Fold this sequence. Notes:
By secondary structure, the chain is of the alpha+beta class. It is built from 8 helices and 10 strands. It has one domain.
Amino acid sequence: MSIFDSLSAVCPECGTEQAVKVVASINADRRPDLREQIIKRTFQERTCPSCGFTFRLPPRFTYQHFAEHMWMIVHPRRDLAKWQELEAEAQEVFDSAYGPDSSPLAREIGAQLIPRVTFGWPAAREKLVARAAGLDDITLELLKMAVIRQVPKAPLTDQTELRLDRVDEDDLVLFWVDGTTEAVEASLTVPRSAYDEVAGGGDWAALRAQLTGHAFVDLNRLLVPAA
Ligand SMILES: [Zn+2]
């Protein structure tokens, strides 16, 4: 089941409020259209009745896609500083649904799911794109670290993140994007062979260990100090 909540949205341009229905829980097995909208960046898009400005409501929902072994809680980007607390909360929610105290059936389902927590639309969308392309999200984060080390003037700021846009035949197309507004600053192409190299091990064992066994699999885990 996909569950919707009602709340009021404020236009970031003129401040007009409007009542909206927002999603609280997505079941992508039953609603592949909602998954498509996230990938197309149209999900929860609204147009202001006063000024006509089009904007997206900040994400805050649970996302499940059993066919892809995905279970994820998505928070607004502004909550990133609280990642440690919200990661623990996500793990608690996951454990109460699928953990040791749940029914045998739930435990069986849960064993197939990988819990994740993300902040902002670009981060949430990236998990879907990576999974669809058969990429491991931990390896993808390590690849980004390799890219950041090699790009002399990486435009990494408090707001700008390096995210996977899409996978073309032999290339991963990454872009620098504002984690809140989704404004794209620049894109770069990384050959798939670079991903394969990182996947092969090399010098990445220590950083890989830091990203493994947690729900918050994101470079920001290493870059944003826990609040
Ligand atoms: Zn407006």
